[in-house]
Design a protein that fits this description.
Length: 136
């Protein structure tokens, strides 16, 4: 698996676990343990999610030591759907805005994700024109 793809998978996994922790959040040390991450790698990923305003890091005193509790900034209706959203790991995230050169309006990645999520939510399967003609 290419390095970037592995990093994107880790970012999604960290974000998903923070979302699942709810409003109370999760200690970063617990999270690194669950994912077998070094504190250096874990902190780098947490910083990326924080910069994207997806999580916040609250400094807390735990067993006499300062550490961080990671909390979701926005809790979506469905954790499964948002954790797979392409924007979470997109390298163009900072350049992407409504009328920008990169935009959610023209992005094929977000379009594909929305269609898949819609189909999953409604359990609607795509029917080809041939199948409609055969049925009709
Ligand atoms: S809309 Fe597309 S280009 Fe923009 S941040 Fe999301 S995945 Fe990246």
């Amino acid at each position: 698996m290419p390095r970037d793809s592995k990093e994107e998978d880790l970012i999604s996994m960290v974000y998903k676990l923070v979302l699942e922790s709810g409003d109370g959040g999760i200690l970063q040390s617990e999270l690194w343990k669950k994912l077998s991450l070094t504190s250096r790698d874990g902190s780098r990923i947490a910083t990326r999610l924080e910069k994207r305003k997806l999580i916040k890091r609250d400094k807390v005193l735990e067993d006499g030591r300062w550490t961080y509790r990671l909390k979701p900034l926005v809790v979506p209706l469905s954790i499964e759907s948002i954790a797979d959203a392409p924007c979470i790991t997109c390298p163009l995230y900072y350049k992407c805005y409504e009328d920008g050169a990169v935009s959610p309006r023209t992005c094929t990645k977000i379009e594909g994700w929305v269609v898949t999520e819609y189909q999953r939510a409604t359990s609607v399967s795509t029917v080809s024109a041939g199948e409609i003609n055969e049925a009709g």
